[in-house]
């Protein structure tokens, strides 16, 4: 996720540097041909690109809104994951009275459940980004559980299954009553629903024809723009056309990046950062003082992953 400060111009204009170079060369060629050969017939009425620009602006605004809705939905889902992870851990820690049972066994059970929930958050984020969901989980869960998760194509789903097995075991042992087990299972169901919503966003491609038509219309608008300004500005139209084209191109690039919130880019939903915050909160609930360190990346301070 991009932060409010320190976003370098190199990052912003680096997304469109080749397009801007082509626009500058194209416009310069038009100006040279017009001035050297005095081709007055090359000019077109300014109203033509103005009308196209107005329509294109509306289409780009609509597309940007739709892309932002996808990004915001992803962020909202991860906000719910934070709440449900805290609720699940609180329920696990508070429902079981360790004074009535073998304290060591109960403590091991509760710690295993909470740590597995932390691992689930990391595994989900990595899986959504197309990375190995098992990477780094061995510091949170046992090797046996990592080996179990390796058998599944969907690692987060495997961890939820282990949650369900442990809840069933706790019910049989009498550590939980049926009402408590149902309450915990409902929390797991909400986590599973959140995972499914993320996968829906990840696997639903933004309509390709819609993006393609807008891209073609924008390119046609940029191609016409030098012919409409040539009579008014001459050589000055080169930076002017470049500036106008850059504005449209940047809006299009912004929409392209926002429409895929799980694509392992700086504009992503900050799933790793959110998972790290969940780990911090849940470990504090366990009275574990080995908290995750705050990552300070001096080279990329303008975004968090």
UniProtKB/TrEMBL annotation:
<keyword id="KW-0472">Membrane</keyword>
<keyword id="KW-0813">Transport</keyword>
<dbReference type="Pfam" id="PF25539">
    <property type="entry name" value="Bestrophin_2"/>
</dbReference>
<feature type="transmembrane region" description="Helical">
    <location>
        <begin position="20"/>
        <end position="37"/>
    </location>
</feature>
<feature type="transmembrane region" description="Helical">
    <location>
        <begin position="43"/>
        <end position="62"/>
    </location>
</feature>
<keyword id="KW-1003">Cell membrane</keyword>
<dbReference type="InterPro" id="IPR044669">
    <property type="entry name" value="YneE/VCCN1/2-like"/>
</dbReference>
<feature type="transmembrane region" description="Helical">
    <location>
        <begin position="232"/>
        <end position="251"/>
    </location>
</feature>
<keyword id="KW-1133">Transmembrane helix</keyword>
<keyword id="KW-0812">Transmembrane</keyword>
<dbReference type="GO" id="GO:0005886">
    <property type="term" value="C:plasma membrane"/>
</dbReference>
<dbReference type="GO" id="GO:0005254">
    <property type="term" value="F:chloride channel activity"/>
</dbReference>
<keyword id="KW-0406">Ion transport</keyword>
<protein>
    <submittedName>
        <fullName>Bestrophin</fullName>
    </submittedName>
</protein>
<feature type="transmembrane region" description="Helical">
    <location>
        <begin position="205"/>
        <end position="226"/>
    </location>
</feature>
<comment type="similarity">
    <text>Belongs to the anion channel-forming bestrophin (TC 1.A.46) family.</text>
</comment>
């Amino acid at each position: 996720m991009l932060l409010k400060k320190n976003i370098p111009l190199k990052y912003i204009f680096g997304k469109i540097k080749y397009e801007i170079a082509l626009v500058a060369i194209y416009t310069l060629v038009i100006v040279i041909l017009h001035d050297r050969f005095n081709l007055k017939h090359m000019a077109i009425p300014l109203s033509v690109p103005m009308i196209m620009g107005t329509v294109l602006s509306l289409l780009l605004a609509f597309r940007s809104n739709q892309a932002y809705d996808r990004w915001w939905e992803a962020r909202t889902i991860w906000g719910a994951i934070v709440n449900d992870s805290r609720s699940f851990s609180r329920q696990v820690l508070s429902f079981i009275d360790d004074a009535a049972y073998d304290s060591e066994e109960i403590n091991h059970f509760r710690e295993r459940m909470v740590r597995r929930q932390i691992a689930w958050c990391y595994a989900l984020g990595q899986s959504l980004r197309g990375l190995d969901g098992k990477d780094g989980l061995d510091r949170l869960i046992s090797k046996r559980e990592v080996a179990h998760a390796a058998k599944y194509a969907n690692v987060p789903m495997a961890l939820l299954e282990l949650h369900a097995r442990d809840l069933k075991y706790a019910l049989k042992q009498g550590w939980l009553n049926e009402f408590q087990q149902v309450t915990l299972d409902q929390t797991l169901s909400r986590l599973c629903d959140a995972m499914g919503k993320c996968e829906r966003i990840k696997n639903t491609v933004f309509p390709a024809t819609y993006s393609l038509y807008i891209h073609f219309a924008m390119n046609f608008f940029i191609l016409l723009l030098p012919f409409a300004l040539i009579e008014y500005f001459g050589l000055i139209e080169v930076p002017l056309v470049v500036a106008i084209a850059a504005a449209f191109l940047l809006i299009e690039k912004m929409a392209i990046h926002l429409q895929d919130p799980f694509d392992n880019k700086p504009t992503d939903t900050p799933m790793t950062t959110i998972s790290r915050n969940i780990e911090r909160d849940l470990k504090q609930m366990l009275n574990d003082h080995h908290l995750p360190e705050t990552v300070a990346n001096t080279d990329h301070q303008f975004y968090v992953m």
